[in-house]
Amino acid sequence: MHPEARWQRAIQLCQHRRWAMAAQELRALLTAEPDHAPAHAMLAQVLAQQDELDAALQEARTAVGLQPDLDFAHGALAAVHWQRGELPAAATAIRAAIELDPDDVGHRATLAQICIAQKRWDEALAAADDGLALSPEHTDCLNLRALALTKLGRRQEAADSVEASLAHDPDNPYTHQTRGYALLHRGDPRQALHHFQEALRRDPTLDGARAGLVEALKARNPIYRVVLGWFLWLGRFSGARQMQIMIGLWLGTRLLSRALRDGGHERLADLVGYSWLGFVLLTSCAVPLFNLILLLHPVGRHALEPGARRDALALGATAATTILVGLHGWLGSSAWSQHGWLFWLLLLLPVAGIGVFHAGWGRRALQIFCTLAVGFWVWWSVRLHQLLAAPGPIEPLRAHGELYGHLLLAVVLSTWFVLLAPKGSPRRRLGADG
User: Fold this and answer.
1) 249: part of which helix (H) or strand (E)?
2) Domain locations in the chain?
C-alpha cells in the first residue's frame, strides 16, 4: 500500500478510536518512511491511548527531533507528558506548539487544561480566553473557561460560560461533565448527578464524569456535603498553600486549647484539642467511608472504580475490627483488648488515607506501614498475654508498654503523612476534565 494511503487510513482509524489497527498502519508506514515525523507523532498519541506510555514518549521525542518546527509533534509530546502526569514538561511542550502555530485553538485548550491540572487558575482562564478569541464557540475552551472560573469562585460567569457551551453543543459529554462540577461547587448534587449521567450516556469511558457521579451520589448526604465543600474549597489552592492551611489549623487548635487551659476551662480545652483529631478523622475517612456506603447503592457500586471499592472494604474491615476489639475489651478482662482498641481506632486514619493517594510511592508506603503496624500489634498482643500469664519482674512488662506507646505515636504521626505527602497523579486523557 502507498505510504500516503496508509497515512490517510491511520487518520480514519484514529477518528474511530481503533487504536490497535491505527498503530499497525503507522508502523507499516514508518517501515517504509522512517523519517515521517507526523507518523511518529500520531503513533505516540495512539500508544498513549493504549497506556504504552514509555514507547509513546520515545515516539513523540523522535517526531520532535525529526521535525522541530512541526507543532503537531510538540502537541503530541505534550499529550504524552500529560498522561504520564509530567505537567511542567507538558506545559513546556504545548507552549512550543503554540509558538509554532499561534492560530491553533486546540493547542490553547490543551494549555488551559494543563494549567488547570497545575491549579494555575488565572493562567488557565487566560489560555481558554485566547482560544475563544480564535474560535468563540470552541466547546473545549468554553468548558475549560467555565472550570477555571468555578475554581476562582466566579460562579455566575462560570454558569454563563457552560450554558453557552451547552447551547452550542448540547450533546458534548465534556460540557455536561463541566456543568456537573460547577453544580457540585454550588452545592446542588441532584442537578449535578443529572449532568454526570448525561455525560456518561454520551461517553461511557469518561473517567471524570464517573468520578463526578460518585461525588454527587455521596453529596446527597448532608455530612458528606460539608466534607465535599471543604475538599472543593481546599482544592483551589496549590499543594504548598494547602500545607500552610493545614499547619495553620493545627497551630490554631493548639494555641486555643492552651489558652483555654490556662484560663481554667479544662473541658473546653480538651474539646478543642480533640477537635483536630476529629477533623482529621472526618476528612481522612469520609471518602472511603462513604464509598463503603455507596457499595449498597444500585448505581454507585458500578460507578466506583475497583481500587476505590478495595479501599472502602479495607476501611470497613478495620472499622469492624475496631468495634470487635472494643467490645471484647469492654465486656471481657483481656489486657490486650482493653488497651488494643485505641490502636485500632487510630489505625482508621492511615487506612482511610490509603484511598486518598493515587498509584505511586505514597500509596505503597502507607500500605506497607499499615501492614507492619498490624503485624507489630499482633506480636505485641501475643507477647503481652505471655508476660501476664507468667508473672515475673515488672520491668519487661513496663518495657513492653513503652513499645505500645511508640506504636501509637507512629500511627498518630502517620496522619501527617496522609495530610501533607504528595498524593500522586491519576492517569489522564486530554479533554475538558473536572
Assistant:
1) helix 239-262
2) 239-420
Cell 496522609 appears where? 418
- Cα separation, 297 vs 308, whole angstroms: 14
Q: Which three three-digit cell numbers place residue 403? A: 513499645
How would you write the pLDDT of the chain (434 residues) with one tens digit per residue?
677 888 999 999 988 889 999 999 999 999 999 999 999 999 999 999 888 999 999 999 999 999 999 999 999 999 999 988 899 999 999 999 999 999 999 999 999 999 988 888 899 999 999 999 998 888 888 888 888 888 888 878 888 888 888 887 888 888 888 888 888 877 888 888 888 888 888 888 788 888 888 888 888 878 777 777 777 777 777 667 777 877 788 788 888 888 888 888 888 887 887 777 677 667 766 777 788 778 777 777 777 788 888 888 888 899 899 999 999 888 887 888 888 888 998 898 889 888 878 778 888 999 999 999 999 999 999 888 888 877 767 777 788 888 999 999 999 888 778 877 777 665 555 544 44
CA-nearest of 174, 183, 236 to 209 is: 174
- Nearest C-alpha neighbor of 149 from the set 110, 200, 177, 112: 112
pTM of full prediction above 0.70:
no
Count of CA atoms in the C-beta half-sphere (13 A) of 88: 0
